[in-house]
Amino acid sequence: MTTNQAGPAGARTPVQRAAQAVGLVFLLVGILGFIPGITTRYGEMEFASHESGAKLLGLFQVSVLHNLVHLLFGVAGLALARTAPAARAYLIGGGLIYLVLWVYGLVVDHHSAANFVPLNTADNWLHLFLGLGMIALALLLTRGRGTAPAGRGGAGTRP
């Protein structure tokens, strides 16, 4: 057995379970973004615009595009949780994307057409914590564990 596959009886590594959990949360958030009541001012939702008045839980500004991105991140998390290396890559890559979104949200004028996602201050803080949290999960859950198949060292490695 290698460390990049699920273990006996389909058991998953901690990083795989984390990627799966993160993926499920993103799916849930994407779905909730389309439910009136959970998303306030639902009738003001735009496809992709800073003028979208809809807010998930009355706090996080959302649009159809924003919700679709959450759904895609969820599907990606579930698909990539099948192996430990892919799960780790999802958490690190997704975390980096969310850190870029955090920086983007800090520098873009929230009332300009450049804020097409759309983002508000609550989204910015969430993106910072998501980015750091996803990267931390990937690094902490794979620390000291090989994610490549056993017996495959790089050139010049010794047993």
UniProtKB/TrEMBL annotation:
Transmembrane segments: 21-39, 59-80, 87-105, 125-142
Domain of life: Bacteria
Pfam families cross-referenced by the UniProt entry: DUF4383
Keywords (A to Z) from UniProt: Membrane, Transmembrane, Transmembrane helix
Protein's recorded name: DUF4383 domain-containing protein
Organism of derivation: Streptomyces chilikensis
Lineage, opening ranks: Bacteria, Bacillati, Actinomycetota, Actinomycetes, Kitasatosporales
